[in-house]
Amino acid sequence: MIALIGLFPGIIGLETTEGVGVLQVLVLLAGFSVLFLAAYIFVKRSFYAGLRNTLAQDIGIRLTMTGLLAAAAAGLADVLGFGSHPGPDDARPMLGRLQAIALVSSILVASLGVVIYAIFGPEDSASETDDSDNPAIDSA
Question: Closest Cα partner for 99 from 17, 19, 10, 2?
């Protein structure tokens, strides 16, 4: 819901202005951060409870963190001083086309990290079968 409010602030009755503002970007980033954290907790508790993370899962976590950091840098570039629209002090920061593309791309990279974490988890040792229990091998 927080990410949805960041994308469309009018759904909760906030007055919208032209363009995308700094507060809107911050709410959007907070929403996606909570969403990714919840996804990691869900995958860990549902599929890999009690198991240690694999190297691929650690890479997935770091990829998500990097994607969120890049999204924050792209979304807040004008505020941080390295954006393409550094207007006068009284002008409102503006989210440009390239910044929006970088923001969306970074969110997609962060989402890929969650998918990597979910897919490349450790094998459950209880589901693996031992060769001595296989009757086809014993009869050969």
Answer: 19
**Whole-angstrom distance, CA of residue 47 vs CA of residue 39:** 12
DSSP 21-52: -HHHHHHHHHHHHHHHHHHHHHHHHHHSTT-P
Domain contains 116? yes
Q: Give the integer Cα–Cα distance in Å for 49 and 134.
A: 28
Q: What is the pTM of this model?
A: 0.76
Mean pLDDT by 10 residues, the chain (140 residues): 70 67 83 94 93 94 96 86 65 78 94 96 65 54
Q: Tell me if 130 is assigned to some domain.
A: no
Rounded to the nearest 5°, which phi and psi values hold at 100?
A: -65, -40
**Gap between the Cα atoms of 127 and 129, Å rounded:** 6
Write the CA distances from 24 to 65, 69, 94, integer angstroms.
20, 16, 11
Interatomic CA distance for residues 103 and 132, integer angstroms: 53
In a domain, 99, yes or no: yes
